[in-house]
Amino acid sequence: MPEELPLVAAIERADGHIKIAVSGEIDILSAPKLRVTLDEALSGGARVVEVDFSGVEFCDCYGLGVLLEARRRATEQGAALRLVSVTSPLVRSLLQRSGTATALLRPPAT
């Protein structure tokens, strides 16, 4: 059985723009850490939050729920939240099959 990859998130801030680089696997155990990271980013008053998924190999429905909740909060605050660099076929499949790809991958409106 393969060992689970721990979730790692790094935050960069610049002029109302926050980029969160996430790596590892997002599941029932690691989704709460992602939630805390996204809450921190959204509480800082950012206008745009980009979540870089290039290092994420797997995301389950718990992780998807965290992302959708963060997107809802961002929208309520007048901010944009989007995923960028989704390279994992498993994550892309989750987004497409759940019907959330358009909402989470769409560039923020200008």
Q: What's the structural blueprint in terms of helices and strands?
A:
Elements: E1 8-14, E2 17-26, H1 31-43, E3 48-59, H2 61-76, E4 80-84, H3 89-98, H4 101-105
Parallel strand pairs: 2-3, 3-4
Antiparallel strand pairs: 1-2
Helix pairs in contact: 1-2
Shape: globular
What integer value in Å does the Rg equal? 13 Å
The SSE string, one letter per element, is EEHEHEHH
Structural class: alpha/beta
Strand order of the largest sheet: 1-2-3-4
Q: Please, could you describe this protein's structure?
A:
It is built from 4 helices and 4 strands. The chain has 110 residues and is of the alpha/beta class. The chain has one domain (8-105): Transcription Regulator spoIIAA (2-Layer Sandwich). The chain has a 4-stranded mixed β-sheet. Strand 3 (48-59), helix 2 and strand 4 (80-84) form a beta-alpha-beta unit. The protein is globular. It starts with 7 loop residues before the first strand and ends in a 5-residue tail after the last helix. The mean pLDDT is 89.
